[in-house]
Predict the 3D structure of the following.
Amino acid sequence: MSTAETLLSVEDLGVRFHTDRGVVTAVDSVSFELRAGEVLALVGESGCGKTVSTQTIMGLTRSANSEFEGRILYGGKDLLSAGEQAMQSVRGAEIALIPQDPMTSLNPVQRIGDQIGEQIQAHARVSNADALAHTVDLLERVGIPRARERVRAYPHEFSGGMRQRVMIAMALSCEPRILIADEPTTALDVTIQAQIVALIADLRERLSAGVILVTHDLGVVADVADRVAVMYAGRIVETGTLDQIFYDPQHPYTWGLLGSITRVDSERPVRLPAIAGMPPSLLSPPSGCHFRPRCPHEFARCAEAPALEQRGGADPGHRDRCWLDPEEKRTRREVLGQIGLEAKGVIA
């Protein structure tokens, strides 16, 4: 167990939205910790609650139709109950977000330098000249060539990868203690993806910041993450170290995620496997285990909701929400012949 300082502690976080069709439970009793210098990956299908969880940390899901429970502890304060003024002093300065879509996150009618400078001056009393100099330095650090010239460019003059670098520069402008990167490699080609991943890893090392990486890309997770939390239908269904999740996954949903990616050390499949069925509606999720309707290993006890806990025989710190015994899980994975759900109709 790491002895690094705990920067953030999320305890039994619940987020519900009241809509015309009913109450959507977007996040259901989610708990995790983030330590200094650590990368925690939140992974899962679209709509599983990853982004809502992290945006709630930033105070970005507050509205008249939202409802919260639990605690988000940072620096001895509960951010969930903090006022808007207190959140403004934290948001951007101490906890920064790289949003999911760099194409739409920048103001199209403002120059890049002005947008980053505005972020700097919102949290520090510096002159326009100092803000500009800091902006140029940030753009150089994230690998944008001719930064002194490009600082006067507009967003449409940048490629997708360059816009993502601008968002990273903006997020790092106040040297935050926590960086939330929401799908930072989405829609980028593999070369730019590798550069962005390397950049995040370098920044983590240099600033000793904690990083929450929100992604569905397990290749990115394997490159940079220290710990992984797998989310499904608003809940964390498995959490552990990178090696625990990749080499001894305990939840059938995690098996499906790992089985649905191509491997360089095995024969190329005729068809890329996929988990059968569809994620449940969060307006009316299934009772008990939320993965039950899609799980080929369902049995009677799955009608009860399993707690996220370490089960007999599992490594320390490796927790999951599955009633199967760890030895039984290993046996069933061996019978399948691979980590995944590719046999006996398990995969669609």
About this structure: The radius of gyration is 21 Å. Residues 338-348 have pLDDT under 50 and may be disordered. Residues 237 and 321 are 5 Å apart (CA to CA).
